[in-house]
Design brief:
The complex is a heterodimer of chains A (670) and B (334).
Chain A (H helix, E strand, L loop, with lengths): L6 H21 L4 H26 L5 E9 L2 E7 L1 H24 L8 H20 L3 H19 L6 H29 L7 H6 L4 H19 L7 H8 L2 H26 L5 H23 L4 H28 L3 H36 L10 H4 L1 H14 L6 H13 L10 H31 L16 H19 L1 H16 L4 H6 L17 H22 L4 E4 L17 H4 L1 H6 L5 E5 L11 E5 L1 H22 L6 H18 L3
Antiparallel strand pairs in A: 1-2, 4-5
Chain B lengths: L19 H32 L9 H11 L2 E4 L4 H20 L15 H21 L3 H32 L4 H10 L6 H17 L18 H4 L5 H26 L10 H28 L8 H23 L3
Classes of the chains: A mainly alpha (670), B mainly alpha (334).
Chain lengths: 670, 334
């Protein structure tokens, strides 16, 4: 009898399939038609398969596999458990949408040859899935580095531009700072036993000092990949530089692997957490979220705006993670489960809506060749598909009901409401106030999203060339519809989704929400009890839809449905050109004014006598000037000192070798 | 502590919630909101005129306005997209939902579990996004100005509103509007200092959110100072009627929410006919007094510059956080 195919085998086959698809791209590197219309849809199919098998696995017992590759005595250990499955679900379903979009996206003559691009893209996907499945530090680091390298090459697709090379370099640099930190964290967790498998790390009993060291190193390492302050600087550079499907993949999917890593280390590998770990994560998360959302409101480049919005969302995830850790440290597992559900839900929600929005910017970019908000506008008339689907992403991203972003925000705020019960003299007062900051961030996200949508899709076209813009093609539309559907379904059926992802919460915390949630039926989300708090998104949506349709019918029936078209009124002003609308900078002026100390601004105002009045404002990140530039100068100074050693004469170098040898002979004793 | 939803607790889940009578009362609450909202606006306008020594418009003036607007043709700008035509209906639907879940007569509403207070803030946010986007749709200078300012007021007011709700939710251990009202109305009478802070913050927020005087002037004719009016400049006919009606509904929703959170006495807990018949006159009296006070506050204040609005709403936010801290520090130790 043939042994049954395990889910882990399906995922391994998927990894191989992705690698094979990538290699097939090399067979005909210039054949765009074959690559985009055959290979990318195949990759999407594999993605859907990964998502499906992870979905079917959820709730099952962990499966392990050992691959005969790797170092001697250290083969690759792989493991599929529920935490892995939740993130594999995310990777699979979201990447399916992005790959379908990519099938219609890539055009001739854009940087890297399509075949090479196909290899990098699918290698990126395969390594992300391997990161999730890795069960020893070695396999994890190999996959992690593969992911970083593949995404570096993808970011630098248009490597002819110096700024894109610069963005790629910055990304690679910070990715490696993070990787070193993760490696050290793993090293601490083995505590000298030499057993690099995750099972070995779980068995170690670390002292609180070393456990904290491992946690903090992991926080720095994964934080660098996720974009936590102050290691966020690569994100707003790399995301706009990459082609849009790659930005979508990095922002929607890759950032979540860092959250996966943090969850894996802090709840699975390192042992019992201390309460202040949660406080650290929460403080960093709050800073990151406020920083991200404020900077996203003042951007003038649509992809940078979305990149900063991703930083904000990562901050919110860190806040949720911190809250989970605090509850977990005090053994309040039911509440920890609530907060962790919020984290996992937000991972899924953000993956859906942020990929959707990045892909929409891709379509806009192709149709208009413009990324700057100041040169867009009115695209809802030319690109109705993209515009209406982007609206779903915008509402979800603003954290508004009835779409996906609201559910996780709701869960997070609900778990904050329990924080006064913490048995700690001041945490129980400080933590609820953190909810105020979360509320502010959510409200500001709405501002940023209205700016994004209003300036790109609404209003008058700011450039005459925009009249030539065309809507997205069928492949692109299919990808966008898929992601919008994910956003809608995650918003409408939270109870069903939670009963699936609950397996991961249960695995990490020993308890979950599913029983309570299932009790009240699939249409109602009541994680504690309906009297305590409840939310029924389907009825919510249905009520509004019924009110809209019924109201429209009633008005048309009782009165009339007549419409006359005239020029806009605008209080009778004659000059109504596109220049009379707010620019991107104008729209965010209130934010720059209210939160002035948060920004480093260079402004140039025209005077009354200028014959050619010129206005400009440039907003920069304080951290560049406070942290990164001084560091860079320090490194430069050190390198200048080091060059003195290099005289360029071979005799001097031989002298160095000779002196080193003598010193070693003196120091080293047999 | 004897929690309201405990086994055998005072408000054990009633099966009757989904019964026919429950649905009828829910429908009554919605119809009442639709009917009373313009009347409340008319009443506030009338009080304001008296207080300002002007001759007052008739009480039913908002109805005449709605009727007139519905009769008129929609005059649509050339650059208006379908979103522009959809937005008034969406805003109206959102406000209707908000009115349906706030207990006005009874806490026993079949729609109440649909959205708790956090989702209520969400539905108000959704309406705000739609109206701001619609304002930017035609692409006129005043429209975008209004949309930007509305979002500015929104992001300042929303956190303050959420903090007010957090304070009440901590007192009643629930975010469900019905449970909050039941807990606050039917418990032994205790004065919560935190509720006083929250109440003041809520008043500030409702003034800002309803385009009332210190922040915006509903009767202004000076474009540069407008917020709400600037956003709806391009609307006409039935679209404008729906937006004006939705604005009345919003005022009604905020008034009823304020009354339900801070003066909940008189709202029936069950769906007994007598209790509900008692609740209607109580609600009317509360709204009449509330409307008069609103007009009074508007009369003795002047509209502030737009950049003083953050100070106004920042004060509201701080008061709300203070209320929360008072709740956490002083009241939970008893």
């Amino acid at each position: 009898m043939m042994p049954a195919l395990l889910s882990i085998d399906v995922l391994l086959i998927a990894v191989c399939a992705w690698l094979a698809i990538g290699l097939a791209g090399l067979a005909a590197p210039r054949n765009l038609r074959f690559i985009s219309k055959t290979l990318f849809p195949l990759g999407a199919l594999v993605g859907a398969l990964v998502g499906l098998s992870a979905l079917l696995f959820l709730g099952g017992a962990a499966e392990v596999a050992v691959l005969a590759i790797g170092l001697p005595n250290l083969p690759f250990h792989l493991r599929l458990d529920n935490l892995t499955a939740v993130f594999a679900l995310l990777v699979g379903f979201v990447s399916a949408g992005i790959s379908v979009f990519a099938a219609g996206y890539f055009r001739k003559g854009e940087g890297t040859a399509p075949g090479l691009m196909c290899l990098q893209y699918h290698f990126f996907l395969a390594s992300m899935l391997l990161v999730l499945m890795a069960d020893d530090a070695y396999a994890f680091m190999v996959a992690w580095e593969g992911m970083a390298l593949a995404s570096f090459f993808l970011v630098t697709t248009d490597h002819k531009h110096a700024e894109i090379r610069r963005a790629g370099y910055l990304y690679l640099l910070i990715a490696h700072i993070g990787a070193i930190s993760i490696l050290l964290s793993f090293g601490v967790m083995t505590s000298g036993s030499g057993d690099y498998s995750f099972a070995g790390m779980r068995a170690q009993q670390l002292s609180p000092f070393w456990a904290s060291a491992a946690y903090l190193l992991a926080l720095v390492g994964f934080g660098a990949k996720a974009g936590l302050l102050p290691l966020h600087v690569w994100l707003p550079e790399a995301h706009p530089a990459a082609p849009s499907p790659v930005s979508a993949m990095m922002s929607g999917v890759m950032l979540k692997t860092a959250i996966y890593g943090l969850l894996r280390v802090s709840f699975d590998l390192v042992g019992d957490p201390l309460w202040w770990w949660g406080v650290v994560a929460m403080a960093v998360g709050l800073l990151t979220a406020v920083f991200g959302v404020l900077y996203s409101t003042v951007q003038s480049d649509m992809k940078r705006l979305l990149a900063y919005s991703s930083i904000e969302n990562i901050g919110l995830l860190a806040v949720g993670l911190g809250l989970t850790l605090i509850f977990h440290a005090y053994r309040m597992e039911g509440l920890a489960a609530l907060a962790m559900t919020a984290v996992l839900y937000h991972c899924l929600a953000h993956a859906g809506f942020k990929s959707l929005l990045f892909l929409c910017t891709g379509s806009v970019l192709h149709a208009t060749k413009e990324r700057s908000l100041g040169k867009l506008g009115g695209l809802i008339h030319r690109m109705p598909w993209v515009a209406w689907l982007a609206l779903a992403g915008v509402i979800a991203s603003a954290g508004l009901p009835p779409l996906s972003g609201f559910v996780s925000e709701w869960l997070l705020l609900q778990s904050f409401l329990f924080s006064p019960g913490l048995p700690h003299p001041w945490l129980n007062m400080v933590v609820p106030v953190a909810a105020a900051v979360v509320a502010l961030v959510a409200a500001l996200a709405g501002f940023a999203m209205v700016k994004f949508y209003g300036i790109v899709f609404l209003g008058q076209m700011r450039e005459p060339a925009l009249k030539e813009a065309h809507d997205a093609g069928p492949w692109e539309r299919a990808g966008l519809v898929w992601l919008a559907l994910i956003t809608l379904l995650l918003g409408i059926f939270p109870a069903t989704v939670i009963s699936y992802i609950d397996a991961a919460t249960r695995q990490l915390l020993g308890t979950g929400l599913a029983d309570k949630v299932r009790e009240h039926g699939w249409w109602m989300l009541a994680p504690i009890s309906p009297e305590r708090a409840s939310y029924e998104p389907l009825i919510f949506l249905a009520t509004i839809v019924v009110a809209v349709l019924f109201g429209r019918q009633l008005v048309h029936r009782l009165y009339h449905g007549r419409i006359r078209r005239t020029p806009a009124w605008d209080c009778g002003y004659v000059f109504q050109g596109p220049r009379a609308q707010d620019t991107a900078e104008g729209f965010s002026q209130p934010i720059r004014r209210i939160f002035e100390p948060m920004f480093r601004m260079e402004r140039h105002f025209p005077t009354a006598r200028d014959s050619q009045p010129y206005y400009s404002v440039k907003v920069e990140d304080h951290l560049w000037h406070w942290l990164y530039l001084p560091l860079a100068r320090l490194m430069n100074a050190i390198s200048v000192l080091m060059t003195r050693l290099q005289g360029g004469r071979i005799a001097i170098y031989l002298l160095y070798s000779f002196l080193t040898l003598i010193v070693l002979l003196l120091v080293a004793r047999p | 502590m004897n929690l309201p939803w405990g086994p055998g607790g005072e408000f054990a889940r009633r099966e009757a919630a989904m019964s026919i009578s429950g649905l009828l009362w829910q429908l009554l609450a919605i119809v009442l909101a639709l009917a009373l909202a313009p009347l409340l606006t008319g009443w506030v306008n009338q009080c304001r005129a008296w207080l300002q020594n002007r001759s007052a418009p008739p009480l039913l003036q908002p109805y005449y306005m709605l009727h007139k607007l519905f009769l008129k043709d929609v005059v649509l700008a050339h650059g208006a997209s379908p979103l522009f035509r959809f937005a008034p209906f969406a805003v109206f639907g959102c406000m209707l939902l908000a009115c349906a879940i706030i207990p006005t007569l009874s806490t026993d509403l079949p729609l109440a579990p649909t959205a708790d207070t956090i989702a209520l803030v969400g539905v108000l946010g959704l309406a705000r996004i739609f109206i701001s986007l619609a304002a930017m749709d035609v692409g006129t200078s005043f429209g975008t100005l209004g949309g930007r300012r509305e979002m500015l007021i929104g992001f300042l007011a929303e956190p303050a509103l959420l903090m007010v709700i957090f304070t009440t939710a901590l007192i009643s251990q629930s975010t469900s509007v019905a449970t909050i009202v039941e807990t606050l109305a039917h418990r032994d009478f205790i004065i919560y200092p935190s509720l006083a802070f929250a109440g003041i913050a809520f008043t500030f927020v409702s003034f800002a959110e309803n385009a009332r005087v210190p922040v915006d002037n509903p009767a202004t004719h000076l474009e540069l100072t407008m917020i709400h009016e600037a956003m709806i400049l391009e609307y006409s006919g039935r679209h404008l009627a729906l937006i004006e009606w939705a604005a009345s509904l919003k005022l009604y929703a905020y008034s009823c929410l304020g009354l339900a959170l801070f003066f909940p006495w008189g709202i029936a807990a069950g769906s007994s006919v007598l209790g509900l018949l008692m609740a209607i006159p109580v609600l009317l009296v509360k709204l009449v007094i509330g409307g008069f006070l609103l007009a009074g506050i508007e009369t003795i204040n002047a509209k502030v510059r737009i950049f003083r609005a953050p100070e106004f709403l920042g004060t509201a936010f701080l008061l709300a956080v203070l209320g929360l801290l008072v709740r956490l520090m002083l009241e939970t130790r008893v």
